[in-house]
Amino acid sequence: MSEQTRSTLELHDIQRGVLSPRPTPYAATYILFRIDDREQGRELMRRASAVVTSAADTVSPLGETWVSIALTYHGLRALGVPQESLDTFAWEFRQGMAARATALGDVGESGPEHWEAPLGTSGVHVVLVALAPDSALLEAAVDRARPAYEALPGVTAVWRQNCHALPTETEPFGYRDGISHPAVEGSGTAGSNPLETPLKAGEFVLGYRDELGGIQSTRPEVLGRNGSYVVFRKLHQRVALFRQYLKDNSTGPEDEELLAAKIMGRWRSGAPLALSPLRDDPTLGADRTRNNTFLYERDDSAGFTTPCGCHIRRGNPRDASVAGEPRLHRMIRRGTAYGPPLPEGVLEDDGADRGLMFTFVGAHLGRQFEFVQSQWMNDGVFFGAGDARDPVVGAADGSGDFTIPRRPVRRRLAGLPRFVVTRGGEYCFMPGLTALRRLGELTG
């Protein structure tokens, strides 16, 4: 295969859910399936290849609406993919998320033994994701995909999670979400930070050169080419606990909002501390052309403006030289809220399940998702913070702390509780459309 072919993204063969930023607002649903009959599972792949939206299809009769299909390792096995081919997929993918729980910090109440059934088990084979600007269009998208799995008694829907993105673009803790999106060479979609050099396509899609010059592939190549590894995680958010902790550790409403900003790295409006260090700026927060245009190293290497251990700086250190080269750990990350919002000002848990369906997309499960989760979110050594964990999503046990650099005396928050609990998840592979058809043509 020529270098030109390797470097030109085949958008028509890549699922749209890999590269396209999501519209605002939108509704989404995740439907999980188990394959009990191999031939009917293959028929599902043939049908799915006709309804899945490609990255080249940016004009849909249903608007900003698309359907994506991903498979777990157990799903590929259920379809009869030969073991010699399965062995060429990433070893983390072959193990599955539940087996990687300790490395990911999914322990205690976040451990797989407490996950929602059947998440994390061998009974999850296929994940269908549908997304649309509103609930009516979402159901239309699901209806369009329904013929792909209905009338196949050997394929069973085993779990569903409906999600939504509010017009305010906020997640359950109240922060504007979905702001940062990397630029990918050849995707035709601009990144959210014009100061960031586009990343090589091979960081996110198999079959192309990555930042190290390598090419991730499978045997046969067609099975992996134009595909991506995808991580789905259901994360329950303890909103009342988060609000109470902020209130208990602040001197008043203004200080509470400053504390919330220091923990996250942004004000709740989305305005980054890097550009608005002293007070919130909702106009800046809502401006997609400005709210992500910043770096850290030149002006704030010590973290006096944006704490080095805050959530967004851990997840994307940008130009900071922590743990070598941050570009090698860059991810496409998306989050979609689920459950009813907790009414404003309420400080007591109402018992409702609410949180975020987290999605990672990339070509390197180990050095992208797992590295960020284990080394940046659940350890602080790279940020000069010892064993301190991420103050928002870290695997806290009530004994951790968070330090906010300031002069003349730093501010230290103690006794951080666990604000986010893992309710389950899956490591998946989202094949290219050609690969979907090939999976439907398997024999034996």
From TrEMBL:
Pfam families according to UniProt: DyP_N (PF21105)
Superkingdom to which the source organism belongs: Bacteria
GO molecular function: peroxidase activity
InterPro entries with a match to the protein in the record: Dimeric_a/b-barrel, DyP_N, Dyp_peroxidase
Domain spans labelled DyP dimeric alpha+beta barrel: 14-144
Cofactor(s) listed: heme b
Keyword entries, A-Z: Iron, Metal-binding, Oxidoreductase, Peroxidase
Family of this protein: Belongs to the DyP-type peroxidase family.
Name the UniProt record assigns to this protein: Dyp-type peroxidase
Organism of this sequence: Nonomuraea spiralis
Lineage: Bacteria, Bacillati, Actinomycetota, Actinomycetes, Streptosporangiales
